[in-house]
Design a protein that fits this description.
Chain A is an alpha+beta fold. The termini of chain A are far apart. Chain A has helices at about 65, 115-120, 140, 145-160, and strands at about 10-15, 20-25, 30-35, 45-55, 55-60, 75-80, 90-95, 95-105, 125-130, 130-135. In chain A, a hairpin with a 2-residue loop joins strand 1 (about 10-15) and strand 2. In chain A, the strands form two sheets. In chain A, strands 8-1-2-10-9 form a five-stranded mixed β-sheet. A five-stranded mixed β-sheet of chain A has the order 3-6-7-5-4. Chain B is about 35% helix and about 25% strand. In chain B, the strands form seven sheets. Chain B has a six-stranded mixed β-sheet. Chain B has a six-stranded mixed β-sheet with strand order 24-28-29-27-26-25, with no helix packed on it. Chain B is flat. In chain B, about 35% of the residues are buried. Classes of the chains: A alpha+beta (about 160), B alpha+beta (about 800). Chains A and B meet through strand 4, strand 5 and helix 4 of A and helix 21 and strand 20 of B.
Chain lengths: ~160, ~800
């Protein structure tokens, strides 16, 4: 079986906590090195803060907080994500950024049923790659304005 | 004005700056063959056989540098920027208008604006040959260009108009109202066709796109003399007015902007310098000797560039005011008024986007002035005023604001009628109306759903209006207010910020964070030393107040409000920023003041905007980000109430029936009271309530400062003697230690003649400020007036109740 480039998904791999995650490289606008966000008082806990980016002020999301992990002191690596269609631009703070992983698009497997509600809400599915299992993230779901909805529904699901 | 029009440049506002950078090489050949009718079928550069005359009938080509056109970069296929090989497949797209046509449209619209202005002027000065010549030139230019572009319908109309104007210029016919009406109708006709071209790309060949009637009218005017125009004129105006408003609003935000070539050249030079400096900076390293110099140069260039862009965006107000003579004229005709419009300060400049934003509100204010303000001539003569009313538009710059006043010398606004109307429409209730002052009542006209028009006319009276004016002005950070004197006239005053993006701000620190506080909200900055702290900042319950001169200022601690851990102990020296947002006034307690800086406002993402306290963010000089604090949002979040005198007040209503029934809650809104503890006359400790508004200050005074005059305790307070009332005999009890402090409430009391006097009430302990609900008197409890405060009973201080124990109306009115 031959796979053409159109069938291949290029993912930027991300490490946070013990997990590996991947995000479509077309949704990654830029990878910034270790970046310290400036905290915003009263913001939801998954908001890491704000950073200056090309003359704009970007809101950054803490991926650790999204996964329910405690914050840690080391500066986070920052991905600037931007859904080309209509989404807002924002930063995603992760523990470390790995290389680019190519996977066939159709090899995606559904999230394991035992995954908690938060994970179910955040991940699209899982790819089995050479670097291990990679949970696929969609920038559109991680948009700050979307997160509030997603997390409420997820938490709601838990209480049920 | 004319000179300026000549030496300026048309830039499409979208992406103007990028266009400058991108278009430098194209300037020389940008004025190309006007083959716009054929779309982009040919992309070859042809030498410019451009119309030999520009708008003013002067030759363009003799002075090629004086007027250049910079193409806009948002045009998908600009033939001047793409070589022939790039020619895209061309469809004769009807909805598409190429940039040459756009330029023609923009110039023609401007020409027509001038025609309109001159025509209304001509009505007052019928023999001014200069005016006639100017109208002629403008129409002639349009005719010339249309002929060249092959716009036949436009050409035909312009031609008839021109012929008529020739007669006028040669003095064969004279200016009469029908002639002016006819010419204005022609001007409207031309404008209509131009708009049609802008929308559809064609002149329109539909059956109703027929100018025969109009042309016939113009021809008849030419052979004139006694030919009276069809009685259409008045009816015409009515019929046309909706159409015209739609026209004016469609051209409301013109996509192009005239700027001075000098300013543009300066910007270009600065951009060049910027590029050079960047190159040098990239080559150099921080340690090198020329580095500080480069940094300085970069900073200078940036400042200058910013300033020149700002300059370029500033547009004189006459661009806006120019519309009004016609509007006023037409409106005056329809309403049967005689109105003259006068301008002042129309050279005042305002940012282009703001100019567009105030176009509608200002038009509305002017319409209102004519329709509601100016009385019919007969009525004016009866009132001893000249038959002709005056609407005056006055603009001036005051600091960071441009103030525009629309004044009429009409009937003024009757506050009585305003209040009656507002009550009828259910906007306020009768008791609210009764308690309103004149100024307050006038502001009711800005409330949605309000209209004083006796009947709904085509122009006004639908109750949508002044509230829209206010909303529009407030969205751009401005304010609007009204002043009126019955019989003498009304003034609507708009205060518009000069620019939006850059605001002066104070950079402040709290709990290690850095915030920007826009200076517009800041009225005063107070530094409280550690020593003054206990005397000047006091707690009433959980609320802290600062006594600022004669008032108690509620305090908001920024760190607490934002849920940040306080970095300094509560009693250390602090700054208090006194903020005002129109209705509320409070002090914001800060740790440090860093600098004053002009900040560039950057928007926040929606999730951070939702927090409500921050209106944006900005980058500081040191690269740090600072959140911009929103004073009114902070006030709301912290629960600061609007000041009593500036709000619609609710009052405690005591009806006699309720007074006769035993203890029963009276249906009254809550009134804030200061609670203190007292054990007067050896009785039990009780809560006593005082109307908050009666309390001027709460002070702690040393016992040694208390002096006795004829056996009565007094203190010296602000240069006068203040009598102390000490019902609990606290002064004697504390007498042993003269260093002790006693708490004194300084209150203002009104005697029966309503003369205010001050008195100091010595109290044991201040408990707090709370809302009290008055209870009806219970005969078993004696004469005391009782209220419920926080589910506990409090007695109203008898000194602030009238003799029968019913709280004097004036006191509670102040409170409410």
């Amino acid at each position: 079986m031959t796979t053409t480039t159109a069938d291949l998904l290029q993912m930027c791999s991300i490490r946070t906590g013990d997990g590996t995650f991947g995000i479509d490289t077309r949704q990654v606008r830029e990878v910034l090195g270790p970046t310290v966000s400036q905290r915003v008082p009263l913001a939801p806990d998954y908001v890491e803060g704000i950073i200056p980016y090309r003359g704009e002020v970007l809101t950054t999301i803490s991926f650790r907080a999204l996964l329910g992990l405690p914050p840690h002191d080391a500066p986070c690596s920052m991905l600037v994500l931007d859904d080309a269609i209509e989404g807002e631009r924002f930063g995603l703070a992760v523990d470390a950024i790995g290389g680019v992983v190519n996977v066939p698009r159709n090899s995606i497997e559904p999230n394991p049923g035992t995954l908690d509600a938060r994970g179910l809400a955040l991940f699209d599915g899982v790819y089995n790659t050479t670097v291990g299992l990679v949970a696929h993230l969609d920038a559109r779901r991680l948009q700050p304005s979307q997160l509030a909805n997603i997390l409420t529904t997820a938490n709601h699901g838990v209480t049920q | 004005m004319r000179q300026q029009a000549c030496s300026s440049t048309v830039i499409r506002a979208a992406g103007a700056i990028q266009a400058i950078a991108g278009a430098t090489q194209d300037i020389s050949n940008s004025r190309t063959a006007p083959n716009w009718r054929r779309g982009f079928t040919t992309y070859k550069y042809t030498p410019p056989p451009f119309p030999a005359t520009d708008l003013l009938g002067q030759t363009v080509l003799t002075d090629p540098d004086s007027s250049i056109i910079v193409g806009s970069i948002d045009m998908p296929h600009n033939p001047h920027l793409h070589p022939v090989t790039h020619a895209p497949p061309v469809k004769p797209d009807k909805g598409k208008v190429d940039d040459l046509a756009r330029e023609f449209l923009a110039e023609s619209q401007e020409g027509l604006d001038r025609v309109e202005l001159c025509l209304t002027e001509l009505e007052h000065r019928p023999y001014d040959t200069e005016l006639i010549a100017e109208i002629f030139r403008a129409v002639h230019t349009i005719k010339g260009t249309t002929g060249f572009l092959g716009l036949l319908r436009l050409q035909k109309l312009a031609h008839v108009g021109e012929a008529l104007l020739v007669e006028l210029r040669e003095g064969r016919i004279i200016v009469t109202p029908p002639l002016i009406n006819g010419l204005l109708a022609m001007q409207d006709g031309l404008r209509g066709i131009l708009n049609l071209i802008a929308e559809t790309g064609t002149e329109g060949e539909r059956s109703d796109d027929d100018d025969r009637e109009l042309i016939a009218l113009l021809v008849s005017l030419k052979t004139q003399a006694a030919v009276s125009p069809p009685p259409a004129s008045a009816h015409d105006l009515e019929a046309q007015s909706p159409a015209r408003t739609s026209l004016s609003s469609s051209s409301a935000s013109t996509p192009s902007l005239r700027i001075d070539v000098d300013v543009l050249n300066r910007m270009m030079n600065l951009v060049g310098e910027l590029v050079l400096t960047r190159n040098q900076l990239l080559e150099s390293k921080p340690g090198q000797p020329q580095f500080p110099d480069l940094k300085r140069r970069l900073s200078n260039v940036t400042t200058e560039l910013r300033e020149s862009v700002r300059q370029a965006r500033l547009q004189p107000l006459w661009q806006l005011f120019g519309k009004f003579p016609r509007i006023v004229r037409d409106l005056a005709h329809t309403c049967g008024r005689e109105v003259r419009i006068e301008f002042e300060g129309q050279d005042t400049r305002l940012d282009k986007s703001l100019l567009d934003a105030i176009r509608d509100p200002l038009t509305h204010a002017v319409r209102n002035a004519v329709d509601h303000g100016i009385e019919p001539p007969a009525e004016r003569l009866k009132a001893g005023k000249p038959a002709e009313g005056v609407v005056r538009l006055r603009a001036s710059q005051q600091g960071a604001f441009v103030v525009i006043e629309v004044t009429d010398d009409g009937a003024g606004i009757s506050t009585e009628r305003v209040l009656r109307n507002a009550t009828e429409r259910g906007l306020i209730n009768a008791s609210q109306a009764a308690s309103m002052g004149q100024r307050e009542a006038l502001q009711m006209i800005f409330v949605a759903g309000f209209s004083t028009a006796r009947e709904v006319t085509a122009i006004s009276g639908r109750g949508v209006g002044m509230d829209v004016v206010r909303t529009n002005v407030e969205t751009i950070g401005g304010t609007v207010e009204v002043e009126s004197q019955l019989g003498a006239g009304t003034t609507i005053r708009l205060r518009i910020p000069l620019t939006l993006a850059i605001v002066p701000a104070l950079i402040v620190g709290s709990a290690g964070h850095c915030f920007a506080l826009p200076r517009s909200a800041l009225t005063e900055l107070v530094y409280v030393t550690h020593r003054d702290m206990p005397l000047s900042i006091q707690s009433i319950g959980s609320a802290e107040v600062y006594r600022l001169r004669d008032t108690l200022l509620p305090l908001v601690r920024l760190d607490q409000l934002l849920g940040l851990p306080a970095s300094l102990p509560n009693d250390s020296a602090t700054y208090i920023a006194v903020l005002e947002d129109g209705t509320r006034r409070f002090g914001l307690v800060l740790d440090t003041i860093r600098t004053a800086e002009e900040i560039v406002v950057k928007p926040l993402s929606s999730i951070l905007r939702e927090i409500g306290v921050f209106s944006g963010a900005t980058m500081l000089g040191n690269g740090e980000l600072a959140l911009i604090l929103d004073a009114s949002a902070i006030a709301i979040r912290a629960g600061v109430r609007p000041e009593p005198q500036s709000t619609v007040t609710g009052k405690v209503e005591l009806d006699s029936a309720a007074l006769n029934t035993p203890t029963q809650t009276i249906n009254a809104p809550d009134a804030p009271v200061v609670l203190y503890e007292s054990a007067a006359a050896g009785s039990h400790l009780a809560q006593i309530a005082l109307p908050l508004s009666a309390v001027e200050r709460i002070v702690r005074i040393r016992l040694s400062d208390v002096e006795y005059a004829d056996g009565h305790p007094v203190v010296q307070y602000e240069g006068t003697l203040l009598a102390l009332e000490d019902h609990d005999l606290l002064l004697e009890a504390a007498n042993a230690t003269t260093t002790a402090l006693v708490t004194v409430l300084i209150c203002v009391r009104h005697d029966p003649a309503n003369q205010p006097s001050r008195v100091g009430i010595v109290v044991r302990r201040v408990l707090g400020v709370s809302d009290a609900t008055l209870l009806a008197r219970n005969p078993d409890l004696g004469p005391a007036q009782v209220a419920m405060v926080n589910q506990r009973v409090a007695t109203l201080d008898p000194r602030f109740c009238n003799p029968v124990g019913v709280p004097s109306h004036s006191v509670l009115q102040e409170v409410a």
